[in-house]
From TrEMBL:
Keywords, in A-Z order: Dioxygenase, Oxidoreductase
Residue ranges of domain PhnB-like in the record: 2-137
Keyword flag DNA-binding: no
Coiled coil: none
Source superkingdom: Bacteria
A Gene Ontology molecular function term of the record: dioxygenase activity
Pfam families the UniProt entry points to: 3-dmu-9_3-mt
Protein name: Glyoxalase/bleomycin resistance/extradiol dioxygenase family protein
Keyword Glycoprotein: no
SUPFAM superfamilies: Glyoxalase/Bleomycin resistance protein/Dihydroxybiphenyl dioxygenase
Length: 151
Protein backbone atom coordinates (compact mmCIF):
# COMPACT_ATOMS: atom_id res chain seq x y z
CA UNK A 1 0.00 0.00 0.00
CA UNK A 2 1.15 3.56 -0.72
CA UNK A 3 -0.04 6.99 0.34
CA UNK A 4 0.56 9.95 -1.96
CA UNK A 5 -0.41 13.60 -2.19
CA UNK A 6 -3.41 14.27 -4.43
CA UNK A 7 -4.27 17.89 -5.19
CA UNK A 8 -7.70 19.01 -6.39
CA UNK A 9 -8.47 22.22 -8.26
CA UNK A 10 -11.43 24.18 -9.55
CA UNK A 11 -10.48 24.39 -13.23
CA UNK A 12 -6.78 25.14 -12.62
CA UNK A 13 -5.40 21.57 -12.66
CA UNK A 14 -3.83 21.99 -16.12
CA UNK A 15 -2.01 25.15 -15.01
CA UNK A 16 -0.92 23.49 -11.76
CA UNK A 17 0.25 20.37 -13.59
CA UNK A 18 2.45 22.42 -15.95
CA UNK A 19 3.82 24.45 -13.04
CA UNK A 20 4.68 21.41 -10.88
CA UNK A 21 6.11 19.51 -13.85
CA UNK A 22 8.67 22.28 -14.37
CA UNK A 23 9.29 23.14 -10.72
CA UNK A 24 9.85 19.53 -9.65
CA UNK A 25 11.67 18.47 -12.83
CA UNK A 26 9.13 15.73 -13.52
CA UNK A 27 10.34 12.72 -15.46
CA UNK A 28 6.93 11.33 -16.41
CA UNK A 29 3.59 13.10 -16.77
CA UNK A 30 0.26 11.52 -17.66
CA UNK A 31 -3.17 13.12 -17.81
CA UNK A 32 -6.74 12.27 -18.78
CA UNK A 33 -9.46 14.82 -19.45
CA UNK A 34 -13.11 14.38 -18.48
CA UNK A 35 -14.02 14.38 -22.18
CA UNK A 36 -11.92 11.27 -22.88
CA UNK A 37 -14.90 8.99 -22.22
CA UNK A 38 -17.50 10.71 -24.38
CA UNK A 39 -20.72 12.29 -23.18
CA UNK A 40 -23.19 10.74 -20.77
CA UNK A 41 -26.64 11.78 -22.06
CA UNK A 42 -27.91 11.93 -18.46
CA UNK A 43 -25.09 14.24 -17.31
CA UNK A 44 -23.60 16.10 -20.25
CA UNK A 45 -20.54 18.27 -19.70
CA UNK A 46 -19.84 21.69 -21.16
CA UNK A 47 -16.86 21.99 -23.49
CA UNK A 48 -14.92 23.66 -20.67
CA UNK A 49 -15.70 20.76 -18.30
CA UNK A 50 -14.71 18.19 -20.93
CA UNK A 51 -11.28 19.85 -21.14
CA UNK A 52 -10.74 19.77 -17.37
CA UNK A 53 -8.28 17.26 -15.93
CA UNK A 54 -10.02 14.16 -14.58
CA UNK A 55 -6.83 12.47 -13.38
CA UNK A 56 -3.13 13.17 -13.75
CA UNK A 57 0.14 12.01 -12.31
CA UNK A 58 3.62 13.45 -12.29
CA UNK A 59 6.68 11.49 -11.25
CA UNK A 60 9.73 13.26 -9.86
CA UNK A 61 12.75 12.02 -7.92
CA UNK A 62 11.05 8.68 -7.23
CA UNK A 63 7.86 10.38 -5.99
CA UNK A 64 4.33 10.70 -7.33
CA UNK A 65 1.96 13.67 -7.15
CA UNK A 66 -1.57 13.37 -8.51
CA UNK A 67 -3.72 16.31 -9.62
CA UNK A 68 -7.28 16.74 -10.89
CA UNK A 69 -10.10 19.22 -11.29
CA UNK A 70 -13.39 18.81 -9.45
CA UNK A 71 -16.33 19.50 -11.75
CA UNK A 72 -18.84 22.12 -10.57
CA UNK A 73 -21.53 19.39 -10.49
CA UNK A 74 -19.32 17.26 -8.20
CA UNK A 75 -18.69 20.20 -5.88
CA UNK A 76 -22.36 20.11 -4.90
CA UNK A 77 -21.51 16.84 -3.11
CA UNK A 78 -17.84 17.33 -2.19
CA UNK A 79 -18.01 20.98 -1.20
CA UNK A 80 -16.48 23.98 -2.90
CA UNK A 81 -12.77 23.90 -3.71
CA UNK A 82 -10.95 26.66 -1.81
CA UNK A 83 -7.32 27.49 -1.19
CA UNK A 84 -6.38 26.47 2.30
CA UNK A 85 -3.79 25.25 4.71
CA UNK A 86 -4.97 21.70 5.34
CA UNK A 87 -2.53 20.08 2.90
CA UNK A 88 1.22 20.21 3.27
CA UNK A 89 3.60 18.37 0.96
CA UNK A 90 6.88 17.52 2.64
CA UNK A 91 9.98 16.90 0.54
CA UNK A 92 12.31 14.89 2.75
CA UNK A 93 15.85 13.54 2.59
CA UNK A 94 16.72 15.35 -0.65
CA UNK A 95 20.12 16.74 -1.47
CA UNK A 96 20.32 20.41 -0.31
CA UNK A 97 21.03 21.56 -3.90
CA UNK A 98 17.92 19.74 -5.17
CA UNK A 99 15.93 21.37 -2.34
CA UNK A 100 17.22 24.78 -3.43
CA UNK A 101 16.26 24.27 -7.08
CA UNK A 102 12.76 23.00 -6.29
CA UNK A 103 12.17 25.62 -3.58
CA UNK A 104 13.06 28.50 -5.92
CA UNK A 105 10.85 27.18 -8.74
CA UNK A 106 7.87 26.47 -6.48
CA UNK A 107 8.23 29.94 -4.96
CA UNK A 108 7.39 31.61 -8.31
CA UNK A 109 4.22 33.56 -7.51
CA UNK A 110 4.17 32.13 -3.98
CA UNK A 111 5.11 33.21 -0.46
CA UNK A 112 7.99 32.20 1.78
CA UNK A 113 6.98 30.98 5.24
CA UNK A 114 10.53 30.12 6.29
CA UNK A 115 13.48 30.72 3.94
CA UNK A 116 15.47 27.67 2.91
CA UNK A 117 18.45 27.57 5.28
CA UNK A 118 20.55 25.43 7.58
CA UNK A 119 18.93 24.75 10.96
CA UNK A 120 20.00 22.74 14.03
CA UNK A 121 17.91 19.80 12.76
CA UNK A 122 18.61 19.99 9.00
CA UNK A 123 21.24 21.22 6.56
CA UNK A 124 18.41 22.43 4.30
CA UNK A 125 15.02 23.35 5.78
CA UNK A 126 12.37 25.77 4.51
CA UNK A 127 8.65 26.27 3.93
CA UNK A 128 6.57 28.08 1.33
CA UNK A 129 3.06 28.43 0.00
CA UNK A 130 2.96 28.21 -3.79
CA UNK A 131 0.77 30.29 -6.09
CA UNK A 132 -2.00 27.69 -5.86
CA UNK A 133 -2.17 27.88 -2.06
CA UNK A 134 -0.39 24.55 -1.50
CA UNK A 135 2.07 24.50 1.41
CA UNK A 136 5.49 22.86 0.88
CA UNK A 137 8.05 21.90 3.53
CA UNK A 138 11.63 20.94 2.66
CA UNK A 139 13.76 19.01 5.15
CA UNK A 140 16.93 17.40 3.81
CA UNK A 141 17.48 15.41 6.99
CA UNK A 142 13.95 14.52 8.13
CA UNK A 143 14.53 10.78 8.50
CA UNK A 144 17.87 11.23 10.26
CA UNK A 145 16.26 13.74 12.66
CA UNK A 146 13.29 11.49 13.50
CA UNK A 147 15.50 8.39 13.85
CA UNK A 148 17.65 10.22 16.41
CA UNK A 149 14.75 10.25 18.88
CA UNK A 150 13.77 7.19 20.87
CA UNK A 151 10.06 6.56 21.36
Amino acid sequence: MKAIAYLQFDGKAEEALTFYEKALQATNVKKVRFGAFGQDPNASLTEEEQNMIMESRIEFSGNILMISDVLPSMQAATGEITKGNTVLISIIDADPEMNKQSFEKLLEGGTVIMPLSSTPWSASFGMLVDKFGVMWKFNSEASKFLDSFVN
